[in-house]
Amino acid sequence: MDKKEARLRRARKTRAKIAQLKVARLTVHRSNCHIYAQIVDASGGRVLVSASTAETEVRKDLTNGGNISAAVIVGKRIAEKAKSAGIEQVAFDRSGFKYHGRIKALADAARENGLVF
């Protein structure tokens, strides 16, 4: 089993638990150059809001999309978009990534800006 398969295995276990809770989930994906966040509805079939460092509004402010400061900006944007869409409570899906570094920074920024999880 390589690193990607192990991460996806952890992600499946988390998503199965979140599906039992029947709440919207804040899912995060990171690559070397960018970080992406989406809020998916409880059924898992529809993206309600999304934010990433690949968006043109965010790219104007950043020199590098793959660092902690970029993750904080994405966390703030996803929380603001969720509030405007009427979403206040979500379950955090880290997609099998360690809760450390950029993932933790995004989660903390989303919490500080009003998302509950």
Walk me through what this model shows.
The protein is of the alpha+beta class and 117 residues long. It has a single domain (3-112), classed as Nucleotidyltransferase, domain 5 (2-Layer Sandwich). Helix content is 45%, strand content 18%. The chain has a four-stranded mixed β-sheet. The longest helix is centred in the first third of the chain and has 19 residues, at 3-21. It starts with a helix and ends in a 5-residue tail after the last helix.
Keywords:
117 residues; alpha+beta
Brief overview:
The chain has 117 residues and is of the alpha+beta class.
Compile the SSE list and pairings:
Blueprint: H1 3-21, E1 25-30, E2 35-40, E3 47-52, H2 56-61, H3 68-84, E4 91-93, H4 102-112
Parallel strand pairs: 1-4
Antiparallel strand pairs: 1-2, 2-3
Helix pairs in contact: 3-4
Name given to the CATH architecture? 2-Layer Sandwich
How are helices and strands ordered from N to C?
A: HEEEHHEH
CATH class call: Alpha Beta
Order of the strands making up the biggest sheet? 3-2-1-4
Structural domain tally = 1
**CATH topology type:** Nucleotidyltransferase, domain 5
Mass-distribution shape: globular
Q: What is the share of helical residues?
A: 40-55%
Share of β-strand residues: 15-25%
- What is the multimeric organization of the chains shown? single chain
**Count of helical regions:** 4
Strand tally is 4
The secondary structure category is: alpha+beta
